[in-house]
Amino acid sequence: MSGTDTPLDIERAGSTDAALGNDPLATSWETTLRGDLRGFARASLPDAMVPTHFVVLPRLPTLPNGKVDRASLPPLRPEEPAADDYLAPRTTVESRVARVWADVLGVSRVGVRTEFFALGGNSLSVMRMAAAVREAFDVRVDLRRFLEDPTVERLAGMVGATGDPALTSGGPRGVQPDELRREAVLPEDVRPDPDAVPATSGPFRTVLVTGATGYTGAYLVRELLDRGDADLLVLARGSDAEDVVVRVRANLEHYGIWHPGDDSRLRGVAGDIGRPYLGLDRATYHAVATDAELIVHNAADSRWTIPYQQAKPVNVLGTVEVLRLACRSRIKPVHYVCSTGAFPGVDGAVTWTEDPLPDPEGVVGGYRQTKWVADTLVHAARDRGVPASVYRPGALTGAQDTGACATDTFINHLIRGWVQLGAAMRYDFRLELVPVDYCAKAIAHIALSGAAPATYHLPGARTVDMDEIVDHLIALGHPLRTLPYRRWREELVAAVEGGADNELAPYLPLLDADRPAEEIGLAGSRPEFDTTRLTAALAGTGIAPRRVDRDLMDLYLRYFEAIGYLPAPPRPLPQNGSDR
């Protein structure tokens, strides 16, 4: 689901006992507040944590002891647009689409410009809505394009346009190459201040880290603490500096890599990577710009299912803000974590060198496009004198020593979705799987060594065929049927439209009828990533990726079973690579 079933209750300061519905100003305020909260939540939280409903109350009901009386909270109801925001259907098609929405969502009326999710929709109900539209109009909606503007007006335009390519899937999602080139222009003020303290090559006393509350960020913090003596400024959302450290600690504890005494070297910075000047006030910004001697920029919105404009604030504008900070008070080397996904999709074999990215033609999908733009901006900053390095890892997977792994990645959602459906597809995909702890070790070593700015590729020790993962799950005892892609997708769509809980529901817009969208990858693509610079930088360190083979996949799957992400197969997972 794309939201929770728990209401977010807001007590309006200074309100009276009068019902909000009888106060036009209060009703307008309530609508604005809900819209602001929803927008903030969608930009700030993973899809699964965004509340489906926002209930505004004059005050929270309380028990005699002063605690909230949860039993007296009003029932959840889908939100209706305010009268002044409601635009009635204007055509026959809009009226029919609005009736479909009303039936699916259980609301009395639907304005043509009210977003589907603002009415209580989620990833499951959007599939039921699409099925109902297909039955009513005998057309198949391209959900990728619909989700860029999820309104009746947009959908009616798609349904009513005979021959409109928007009715069929397959077109690339995101912005066009010309727009990407315009997006990749670095603001003029992002250049080292003439009077800035020159950059140091180490040893570093203070390192600024972004994305420390994420999966890769946890391991980067661990390695930066272990490989140097610097204090770490960890920039993340939080109520204050102490709250940020609490969040970072909880993240490391989750993966079993928190050590006693770590908090003595962590300094929280409560900010927001997606806001101007990193969401910091003037005094804090100046202090960070003065104190930090090195920046490891890892924060990113890694969701594949969101459009470019939604990923842009964090992935593009956040990178610009980090580069701007690197130029103020003290010139700071920047180590930016990008992705091999920033390269264009190419049929067949191709070798990518550790150089600036090629033209964006063929780079599709909001996430990949934002990484292309950000990578290009970092290289432009390097040309202006910012000592900036870029790292392009493949798809990050579990730690190679413990198997600890984030569950919110496409490949892991795919595995769970297969198991939930009881079926997996056969498709010619190759995966560049990179253990997260190896990636963090490599980046931390190079960053702390004071190496000259450069670009590095971090692929896995071997490329993994997707069919290998399917076969291994079957060998472990998971009762998976293997189907051609088209049949597999039909079963998945039918299951989700029927209300089944499946991890792949949010990805259905990327699963076209005849093939997965290019955001996921190209069948038959055989990219190779040159690692000349990386090999030289890691020479003699012993830092190397473990092969993602059956033994390592066993370790990952045991971890998923232990945390309850995957059910235990009918027969136990093999131990130490035995019983295959």
- What would you report as the Rg, rounded to the nearest angstrom? 25 Å
Total number of strands: 17
Kindly name the structural category.
Answer: alpha/beta
The termini sit apart by 36 Å
Low-confidence stretches: 1-28, 162-172, 576-580
Give the proportion of residues in helices.
25-40%
Strand line-up of the largest beta sheet = 5-4-3-6-7-9-14
Largest sheet, in brief, is:
7 strands, parallel
Residues in β-strands, percent: 5-15%
Shape: globular
Mean pLDDT: 84
Number of helices in the DSSP assignment: 17
How would you describe what is shown here?
The chain is an alpha/beta fold. Helix content is 36%, strand content 12%. The chain is built from 17 helices and 17 strands. It has helices at 24-44, 92-105, 123-137, 143-146, 152-160, 177-183, 215-227, 241-254, 282-291, 308-326, 366-383, 410-421, 436-448, 466-475, 485-497, 532-537, 550-562, and strands at residues 8-11, 54-57, 206-210, 231-236, 266-270, 294-297, 334-337, 348-352, 388-393, 395-397, 423-426, 430-431, 433-435, 455-458, 464-465, 481-484, 525-529. The strands form six sheets. It has a seven-stranded parallel sheet, with helices on both faces. Strands 1-2 form a two-stranded parallel ribbon. The protein is globular, with a radius of gyration of 25 Å. The relative contact order is 0.10.
List keywords for this structure.
17 strands, seven-stranded parallel β-sheet, 580 residues, 17 helices, disordered N terminus, alpha/beta, two-stranded parallel ribbon
